[in-house]
């Protein structure tokens, strides 16, 4: 049975990394003490070692040990043998490029489908969707494809941001950008606000975290869904 | 002699499209009354016809006529015969994809190098750089490459936005994103604020518009350059 937490952000303002998710993560990873961490998204160009060490510190608060996928000789075997997986945020282009380069995209999908509990934050959530076309990140690297895991039947926009009233900047709002996406693509997009996550348990897909999410569907006006909403109808 | 205006935005807040550039454009296009418009970036998914008609209205204020490249049977010939070119903003991924698809990237570069006056705004400015890796746009389409015109020896970040003091949003600032770009790439990036443009005349490359620009160079701290600064040393 698939088991995922797909979170908008690793960190909410004023808290330590993953802190707002600790209670949830204790349940999510209750059957394992060992987390395989994928540091490929490298926020700010941080090294894999430093990123993994930060994540290790966070998970030590809930008594889980963390090993980075780059510490294994064979990343594909590391995924196959994992009992819990966390793909962290950073730059989605960098992440997806490295997932293709290391040939771990398919093994990762198979692990998730086989029921290994998965946590994604930000870029690590983006890749759970059908494609990475709705990332907010700067395209600093050209990946072989924008196709991602597709373990949920829609696209994710993490760090979803409402238009700022009275803003004089002429760059597009997030809503405009996602609507543009839907002039070329038909899959739904979930605008996931910081502090929200999507919980997948088998065929159940629910919004959690106490906030509404903004839903964008092809040829429909965008609308809001409440916390705890069933998202499984979106496809 | 190359002659380009590479503008951060088509429109500044509270004004009509291109209005802030009219005096400059009269000089820039003083040798022609006919502008070839490239509407490929399609802001908000607008049709080529509607986009061209909007641009026609703007240019009629300075007595120039506008024809969209899509109105020609052969877009390559249209570029070869043009006497003034404007590539408008929208989505850079959509624009670059269509430039490749229509095989007009090389003809466009040749036209610019031969001295045909060029105006770019936003996405149309982005493509003047070496690559489109520093666009702010959402990757709603997968183009065949991120390589662009390279008619200036650096990258452009249009609509450059300073960090908002006191912001609680956890998504990356523009500065963070561009610094991330420089962990994988070495060319300079010019953060071009709305209201600014880069003026290229032969070998001269200058900042205009009354604002400072933020400069990002490989292995250097970002810094500011004043209005009218010479940018030709950046490569």
TrEMBL record, chains A, B:
GO BP of this protein: proteolysis
Keyword set includes Hydrolase: yes
Family: Belongs to the peptidase S51 family.
Organism from which the protein derives: Winogradskyella aurantia
NCBIfam families in the record: PRK05282.1
Protein name (Swiss-Prot/TrEMBL): Dipeptidase E
Keywords assigned: Hydrolase, Protease, Serine protease
Gene Ontology MF terms: serine-type peptidase activity
Cell membrane recorded as keyword: no
Lineage, uppermost ranks: Bacteria, Pseudomonadati, Bacteroidota, Flavobacteriia, Flavobacteriales
